[in-house]
Amino acid sequence: MPCEVMYEKADEISLSLRKGAILGSTEAAIKILKLISEASRECKHEFPSFLIKSIPQFISARPTSQVMLNLTRMFLERFLDRSREKGLDEALIETPAIVERLINEINEVREVVAEVGSRRIEDGDVILTHSFSSTILQMFKKALSRGTKFEVYVTESRPVGEGKVMASSVGKLGIKTTLVVDSSVRYVMKNIDKVFVGADAIAANGAVVNKVGTSAIALAAKEARTRVFVVAGLYKFGVETVFGELIESIVLNDPELILPKEAMPQLAGKVLIKAPLFDVTPPEYIDAIITEKGLIAPQAIMLLIKEIYGWPPKVKSIEALLNEVLRG
């Protein structure tokens, strides 16, 4: 029974990921890690099977999320290390501690990224942000704590509309906040000094995968000569893209995301619905990526990957790690 509950929770998380219902890619990854920790306690005898089934399920539900891929890889590497050193039973006992350390490490990185980013905010700045990012929210808090006065424009971020949550959260900090429709970005850009956006993934060539609309914002910013900053820890870098692997996107087709309720009877089933959740912004439209190592030019990502992982990058695939779990 406890194992059934764990699988049900995994299915619920996967569905939420597919619909874009969990705000923030890092939050989604942390939610998965916490479920893995819970499963190690509640479903001990089936835990390897749970990992083998659930991790690919999570990744396929949100294939753009590099943080999910990287954090599950880091967990599997550490879990397998414990299993080899001390045996499976001891690795199971240590799983909650492994997860807790991973989450703490990520939160520490986010704090540093927020601190670095906050120092790019100056008195009088008018900032535009898109979608929901807890790291950007923390960045705003840090800038406020130093007495910096600025205002923020937030796009509604359709099709899910999480920009409304972001705008509400920013407004609660006491910052003058304006919520705007996505299609008005070019119109409002003349008022904007800086753009700060998060990222689901950063490719080896410096391209950024983020909530759909990010590339249009970057394009409008380029035209207006407004600087664009991507706020993301190094755990969002896609090492696999070095080898030419593509980052898949998600396209929703739920009529309720786009069609007004009164139009549903007339149009539902007669009009095709395509609501992409993510897009790719080329590196030439990004001024800098704000990381825990400071500001990095998108074109320098490959050098950073080489420094961290060696060349060619030595990183095991999720599939290879899960095969090790299967072999016990």
From TrEMBL:
It comes from the Archaea. One of its GO terms (cellular component) is cytosol. Gene3D superfamilies: translation initiation factor eif-2b, domain 1, Translation initiation factor eif-2b, domain 2. It is found in: Cytoplasm, Cytosol. InterPro entries: eIF2B_beta_subunit, IF-2B-related, IF_2B-like_C, M1Pi_N, NagB/RpiA_transferase-like. One of its GO terms (molecular function) is guanyl-nucleotide exchange factor activity. Pfam families: IF-2B. Keywords: Cytoplasm, Initiation factor, Protein biosynthesis. Component of the translation initiation factor 2B (eIF2B) complex which is a heterodecamer of two sets of five different subunits: alpha, beta, gamma, delta and epsilon. Subunits alpha, beta and delta comprise a regulatory subcomplex and subunits epsilon and gamma comprise a catalytic subcomplex. Within the complex, the hexameric regulatory complex resides at the center, with the two heterodimeric catalytic subcomplexes bound on opposite sides. Belongs to the eIF-2B alpha/beta/delta subunits family. This is Translation initiation factor eIF2B subunit beta. It comes from Zestosphaera tikiterensis.
